[in-house]
Every structure is written in C-alpha cells, then in structure tokens.
Design goal:
Radius of gyration of chain A: 24 Å
Structural class of chain B: alpha/beta
Distance between the termini of chain B: 71 Å
Order of helices and strands of chain B: HEHEHEHEEHEHHEHEHEEHHEHH
Shape of chain A: globular
Oligomer: heterodimer
Largest sheet of chain A: 2 strands, antiparallel
Helix content of chain A: over 70%
Largest interface: A-B, 84 and 86 residues
Radius of gyration of chain B: 23 Å
Number of helices of chain B: 13
Distance between the termini of chain A: 48 Å
Structural class of chain A: mainly alpha
Strand order of the largest sheet of chain A: 1-2
Number of strands of chain A: 2
Chain lengths: ~550, ~350
C-alpha cells in the first residue's frame, strides 16, 4: 500500500531518519561512552561501579515512588480543571485557564524557591504567620507538592484538548435516555477520556522522573535518580557513571509507556464521526459546579501565592534585609549586555523551535494513529526517549554525538534548537494522537475519496480537528523551549546563550532578586506569546471558538 | 503534485534547522575572526565577576571575549564531552585538584605564563604549567548576627566550637560531592585532624547540620535568609552577600583552615586562531590590574606580590592556613566521599 504512495513513503522515511539521528543516536552514543574507557576499549567497570557502589537502587525506587504519586495527583487535578472548564457553566473559566498555565510558563525551580521563602525556617508563612520556627521543607512531601503544581498543567493541557474535541452528542444521548449527571460522567465522559488520562499520567510520570531542577533544591535527603546522576557527573567528574545512572531512568518510563500503549490500543474511542454535533450541554447544577469551583479557586490561589512571591522577590531591594520596593533588579537586566543577549537568544531560538516541534508532533501523531507502516513502533518510542531521559544525559549525549563531522553542530544554534524540538516533541505527539483517536477515520477517508491527497487531507481535515492539540503543542514547544534548563546547560555556547542558564547562574551566586526578575520577564514574554498564539490558532481555523460562560 | 508537497514539507523542516545552524555560524565569522582578536572562555566564576574581568581585558588588549558561565563540574564535563573538538581555549575558575584531574583526562594544555614571576613564592609551583594560580579563597564560617544573638553565643572561631550544643541543627554546608567549596571544607577537616579523627569529628558535626545543600553557594544564602545560623563556605561568597546588605560575620577556624587556589587554564586543542589571545588572557589575569580587581571588587586574596589585600578582608597572615594537600585531596576524592556517604550520612538522620 505504501509503495503506491511514494510521497507518504518518503515522508515516513524522512521522519524516521530525523528521529533516529536526534532521538536514538545520542542515547546509543552515550551508552557506548558509558561502556568504553578513555582509550576507547570496551569496559564495563563504570556500570559495575554504579550497580555496586552507588545508591542507584534506592534512588530508582524513590524516583518511581515520587513519579507515581505526582502523576496520580497531577492527572486528577488536571482532569478536574479540564472538566470544570469544558463541561460546566462555571464563572471565571478564562482566568482559571491562564492561572493554570503559569506553572508551565516558568522555569521548574521557581516554585521550589518560592516554597523555601514561604515555608522555610524563616519563611513568611511558616514563621511569621504561623510561628513555626523549625519547619523542615526539604523532602518527599515538598517535592510532591511542588512537582504536582509544576506538572499538573501538562496533564490539564493534554486532557483539555480531548475534552474539547470529544463529541458531546454521546453525552447528550445518555442524558436524554435518562442518565443522571453522575451516571453520564461515569459511563460516558470518563471512559471516553481514558486514553487521554493514561497519556497525561504517562507524561507527568516521565516528567517527574527526569525532573532535576526541583529535587536539586528541595529533595534534602530524599535521593532521586536525576540528582544522584548529576552528582556523579559534576561532583565526581565521572561522566560515565553519571550518564549510566541517568539513562537507567528510561527503564521505568519505557515500561509505563508500553503498559499505556497496550491498554489504549485495545480500545476504540471514536466520537467525531462527521455527523451533526449537538451543542455541549453545560452542567449548571449548583451542587456540582460549586464544589468544582471551590477546588479550582483553592488551586489557583496556591499558584498565585507562589508566583506572587516570585514577583515580590524581584521587586524588593534585598529579600529578608531591606524589603522596600525597588526596580533595581530590572534595571540590572536592562543594563546588562549578557542579560539582554540571553533574553534575545532565548526568544529567537524558541520561536524557531516552536513551529518545527508542533508540525513534527502533529505529523508524527497523524502517521502513528492513521497509518500502518514498518517502523511505526520505532517512531513512537523514538519520539518519547528525549522526553523521558533526564535533560543532563540528553545534553551530554548531544554534545558527544554532534561534536565531529559529518554532524558537527556544537556551538551552533542548530544543536540547541534540535534539543528543544526533540525534548518537547512527545508532548505534541501525545496531544495530537489523543485528539486524532477521537475522530472517526471515515471523515478522512471521505476526503480521500473526494479526490484529496494525503497532504490536503492532513492540512484540511486532520489538522483543524487537532486544532486544540496543535495549540497546546505549539504552546508547549515554545514554553518548554523558553524554560528548559538541564538539557541545554551543556549546549549553550559562546554565541548562543539561554535565559534559564542565566537564572541558574544568578541563583548559584545568591542573587535571588535578579533570578526572580529574570523569571518574571520570562513568564511575561511567554504569557504574551500564549495569548497571541491562542488568537492566531483560533482565527486560523475559524470555527469553534471557545465559548465562555 | 502530492509528492512535491510532501517533499517540500520535509525540506522546510530540515532546511529551517540547517538555516538556523548556518546563521549561528555566520554571526561569528562576520569579521570578528579576521580583524579583531578573540578568545572563547568557559568560566566557573560568578557571572558578574567574570564579565568585569572580560570587559577590562578587552579594554586593555582589544581582544574580544566570548564566554559561557557554568559551574566548575559542568565546565569539566562539557570539556570532556567536547574533547574531540574543543569549543573554547581558556577555562577561568576551578581549583588545583579539579584542574589536575582534568589534565589527567587530557583536557588541559600546559602553559607557564611569563607573569608567574610576580606570583608570591609559596604559590609559584604550578606543576610544570598544568595550572596557573591567580587567587586564593579561604574556607570560613559565616554566621548570622541576629541568630547568634538569639542563641546568645559568639560566632564560632574553631572547628571545635562548631560542635556547641546551641548550634545543633544550625549549621549548613554544601554536600562535598556536589560542591567544590564543601569538598575543600571537608578535606580541610580531614587534613586538620587526621583522616580517622576527622571522620569522628564529621560524625559529631553531622548532628549540627541542618542540610547538606547541593550548591556550594546555597549555605551562605540560607544564613542570610536566617534559615541557618552558621554557614561553612568560602569567604569570597560570604563577602559578596554581606555586600548585598545581609548581616553576617566572617570567622576563620583557629585550628587551621583550607583554601582553594583558583586557577586559569589553557584548554587542550582549543580553536587554533585563539591560542595567542588565550595566553594573553592568562598572562593578563596575573597582571597587577587584574589582581587589583580580584581583591578590591571580588574579595579574593591576590597572588601578585605587588598587590595589597583588600582592607575589608582579614589580613592574610592572621588566618591560620593548613598545609593543604591538593594532590592527596584530588586523588582520594572518590574514596573519601564514599566513606562520607557510608559512615557519616547513613549514621544519623540529617534532617533533624
């Protein structure tokens, strides 16, 4: 079948090639590095060292435990948000939506920092309001809170896309047949969103496993794998053992990935069939809307509290000493050449990475869901790897792989863009796949029968259906690019620097105010970009504007 | 038709990546290489400090500097990963043991600056050119004055005093495996007592530690923010944060304390056209002007004979320095850290 469609074949081959080069090759190359000594001979001593002498076992179990808890909580919260904002007549949906986006707009460690300032030993809330003097914020509980807050928006975005594209006529039918709200929810809405729930869970799980920024600041004695790996690499200068530890995170993530795929593939969730769609029957019953509303308010309050703290820190002279307001941190950014340069570089690189990631993501998800071809599994796994692996390992893998001809990329913008693209690719792929699964293939078939080719069908039929997923894909690509830290720390170069590296550097040199100011600027830019994007995507595809209550 | 469009799509994606790469390179060759001399540097110093040196260096010599600022461990890891095709020619920062271990990995090129003749005699040895020492930073205690008053005790002036019961859960240092500053403190303790007595001491000290932070600069921030009373850190970081307005007092342990010789080094196999400029930068770091900046603006103990120590700092001769053995410290790092993990950390609950 493929041989009759040379264009499609070509595109599949091209995609596979790109994925193999940028997703698989660096990891394989890194694995080889782990298994050879300095002279290039085969040598397993680093791996033996890791297994015998380090805390890898405990760290792995700790990471998984944390990942599961965070993923469950994030998915639940994400689902509550997605459901409330798409299925009820709640007030302030738009506000909730924007606030829920804040955590993914910010570099990961920002919330951690806010937690210490608010709940640390001399934290504003713990000490000055509650009078607790010896509050210990370091450890598992804090990590769960912080990671959940930072990652539930990923789940929310993923679920929101599906909620929006889910045909509500099935729900309406259930209602007409006399089912109550609860029954409709349990027997229609929830099962239909199951694949998205699982993929949201998976994404958050993988993200939590590979997260480094938050545990680095907050883990205390709770050893997690990404931090242990980092310690090996930068503390003991042992690139091999560290990389191996980092890569071992792939085991649980890939396992989760296969379980999810196995589960989802056995079920069908088509709801968009091309038949007339009934309007969403928004839930307006007070006893349902109010509790949801309160939950949303509570959560957004916590988020605002944390980010408000960051804003506050950026606006005071010296936190803890001279709390008078001042713009000196912003003035410093404005006057510092390097600050402005990294801000500009970050914008340029993210803007380039954004459309590439989104298009690749949508394209791949289309191929994965709609086409059967040799190498499909490979494509699916490959797109997942850079997301699941800790950034530091990915970054080192990229340096090792692309540091010599024919793929000499170190020092260029291309290597940073490539990392940004492939690190975030899988979120777009998941979102795209989720929306596509909701759509009956017959719509696309109709288009093909009417004479459209694959490309037209993709751009005219599939892509508009994936609009919401496309939006979240674009947004995610942009945001993640603007805020990624650990992967790029080995890739920024004398020519191209990124803002997050400056933020890290400011934190390391104890310039909290400056770091906070950078964060605020970064989030401001991303927020503006988000609003513009939303406008563009909605305009671009015309119909189905979000209805606000 | 459809073939053409699909090919086009692929082309756009690949091209845009190539183009992005191409434009990145173009920026560099736009005259900078031909007309102006230029050097690329990785630095582990605080960004503000590094920029100050670079700007002054450019003013003095006309050589432009491009840099990336990373922690010392990240610098070394990057250099190791980039070994086949090094991207920079100078590493500013890193202590002697760091540089020696990097040299053993084949990442450092030997170079002895002619300006080494101005260096004070005790620190002239540079192991045949492996590293170029440009300043000293010393391990100290930085204590929060307000919290000391609350506890009713004076600032600790010896390792022994750090064990005072009042300071239980009130001392913070970074984890020696993740922070160079903490490793210096850790190794100093082992060298000040003996390895066995040192570990006994560390086990006792463990009760007083609130947290072993990951970053070396974090303990001093915690002291500033009243998260801990005493931070064990480098005096350089302490001075910087005092300068920001935090009310801290610096003391040095009377039994003897460790220090870091900060180095500037030539990277092996760096860009060929930068070699001359790279050496010029290393020479410049030892010049009187640079050494003045080191101490007056950034609180380092200068190593140039003709430069006086910043009066805000404790006179160098009043601090009792150990005969710190960098080579022993570097060579035994993995073994000592394993002992630390197994004997000290596992023996007690660190987080009160």
């Amino acid at each position: 079948m493929l041989l009759q469609q040379p264009g499609l074949l070509l595109i599949i081959i091209a995609m596979l090639l790109i994925l193999i080069i940028f997703c698989i090759y660096p990891v394989v190359r890194l694995l080889i590095t782990c298994m050879t000594d300095t002279d290039g001979n085969f040598d397993l001593s680093s791996i033996r060292y890791v297994l015998e002498k380090t805390n890898i076992g405990t760290a792995l179990i700790n990471s998984i435990r944390l990942g599961v808890v965070v993923a469950v909580l994030s998915t639940i919260i994400g689902y509550i948000f997605a459901f409330s904002l798409n299925r009820t007549t709640m007030h302030g949906k738009r506000f909730f939506h924007i606030i829920a986006m804040l955590p993914i707009l910010s570099p990961p460690f920002v919330i951690s920092l806010a937690v210490i300032l608010l709940f640390g030993r001399s934290g504003i809330i713990s000490k000055q309001i509650l009078g607790i003097t010896n509050n210990n914020v370091y450890g598992f509980t804090s990590l769960v809170v912080v990671q959940t807050l930072a990652m539930f928006p990923l789940a929310y975005l993923n679920l929101k896309g599906v909620m929006e594209s889910m045909d509500s006529s099935v729900e309406n039918a259930a209602r007409s047949l006399g089912a109550g709200r609860l029954k409709t929810f349990l027997s229609v809405t929830l099962p239909l969103s199951l694949p998205a729930i699982l993929s949201a869970f998976l994404i958050v799980f993988a993200k939590s496993l590979s997260d480094f920024g938050n545990p680095q600041v907050l883990a205390g004695d709770y050893a997690v794998l990404s931090v242990s790996a980092y310690t090996q690499i930068t503390g003991l200068y042992n690139l091999r053992t560290g990389s191996f530890m980092a890569m071992s995170i792939l085991v649980p993530s890939m396992l989760a990935f296969f379980i999810q795929k196995f589960w989802v593939s056995k079920k069908s969730f088509v709801t968009i069939t091309g038949k007339p769609v009934g309007a969403v029957d928004y839930i307006s019953e007070k006893h349902i809307v109010y509790p949801l509303f309160i939950l949303c308010v509570l959560l957004t309050a916590v988020i605002i509290l944390f980010y408000g703290t960051v804003l506050w820190v950026s606006l005071v002279k010296t936190w803890g000493v001279d709390m008078s307001l001042s713009l000196k941190n912003y003035q410093f950014v404005a006057s510092s050449g390097s600050g402005k340069k990294s801000l500009g570089d970050t914008l340029i690189l993210s803007l380039i990475a954004m459309p590439i990631t989104a298009l690749l993501g949508m394209g791949i998800s289309y191929l994965l869901v709609r086409k059967k071809f040799f190498g499909r599994k490979l494509m699916e796994i490959a797109s997942m790897i850079p997301f699941a692996i800790p950034g530091i390992a990915l970054g080192i893998g990229y340096v090792v792989s692309f540091n010599s001809p024919p793929l000499l990329l170190t020092g260029t913008a291309a290597i940073i863009i490539a990392t940004l693209v492939f690190r975030t690719l899988s979120v777009g792929v998941e979102a795209g796949s989720n929306s596509l699964r909701q759509v009956d293939k017959s719509i696309e078939e109709a288009s093909t029968i009417l004479g459209a080719n694959n490309f037209t069908t993709f751009t005219r039929i599939s892509l508009p259906i994936m609009k919401s997923a496309l939006f979240s894909g674009l947004l995610n690509a942009f945001v993640r690019s603007m805020t990624s830290v650990s992967a790029v720390i080995f890739l920024v170069s004398v020519k191209w620097n990124l803002l997050t590296v400056s933020i890290m550097s400011a934190i390391e040199s104890n310039k909290l105010g400056l770091a906070a100011a950078y964060c605020v600027l970064l989030m401001g830019i991303v927020l503006i970009a988000m609003l513009v994007l939303e406008l563009l995507v909605n305009k671009g595809f015309g119909k189905r504007r979000r209805r606000n209550a | 038709m459809k073939k053409a469009i699909t090919i086009l799509l692929v082309m756009i994606i690949t091209l845009s990546m190539v183009f992005a790469g191409g434009s990145g390179e173009k920026g560099s060759s736009d005259g900078t290489v031909e007309q102006k001399k230029h050097v690329s540097i990785y630095t582990a110093n605080v960004e503000e400090e590094a920029i100050a040196y670079f700007d002054q260096f450019t003013k003095d010599t006309g050589i432009e500097v491009d840099y990336v600022r990373l922690s010392a461990g990240e610098c070394i890891t990057r250099m190791e990963a980039e070994k086949a095709n090094p991207q920079v020619s100078v590493l500013l920062g890193g202590s002697v043991d760091t540089i020696v271990s990097a040299y053993e990995k084949g990442l450092i090129e030997k170079y002895t600056s002619p300006n080494m003749e101005y260096i004070v005699d005790e620190y002239k040895d540079n192991m045949d050119g492996i590293y170029t020492p440009y300043s000293l930073v010393v391990t100290c205690f930085a204590s929060n004055t307000k919290l000391l008053d609350q506890l009713g005790i004076p600032a600790p002036t010896s390792w022994e005093e750090l064990l005072r019961p009042e300071l239980k859960g009130n001392v913070c240092m970074a984890h020696p495996a993740t922070s160079g500053a903490a490793y210096t403190a850790f190794s100093s303790i082992l060298q000040c007592f003996s390895e066995e007595e040192g570990f006994d001491y560390l086990k006792k000290l463990n009760d007083s530690i609130i947290q072993y932070t990951k970053a070396g600069a974090a303990p001093i921030r915690m002291a500033g923010l009243e998260e801990t009373t005493v931070a064990v850190c480098y005096d350089l970081d302490a001075h910087t944060i005092i300068n920001e307005g935090y009310d801290l007092v610096i003391t040095y342990p009377s039994e003897g304390t460790g220090y870091e010789i900060s180095c500037v080094s030539l990277v092996k196999g760096g860009p060929a056209e930068e070699q001359e400029a790279a050496k010029a930068f290393i020479d410049w770091m030892l010049s009187e002007k640079a050494q003045e900046m080191c101490t007056q603006q950034f609180y380092r103990y200068p190593l140039n004979k003709n430069v006086a120590v910043n009066p805000e700092m404790k006179p160098f001769d009043d601090i009792k320095l150990l005969n710190y053995d960098f080579i022993w410290s570097g060579q035994n790092k993995v073994r000592l850290l394993e002992r630390f993990e197994n004997e000290v950390r596992s023996s007690a609950n660190v987080l009160n």
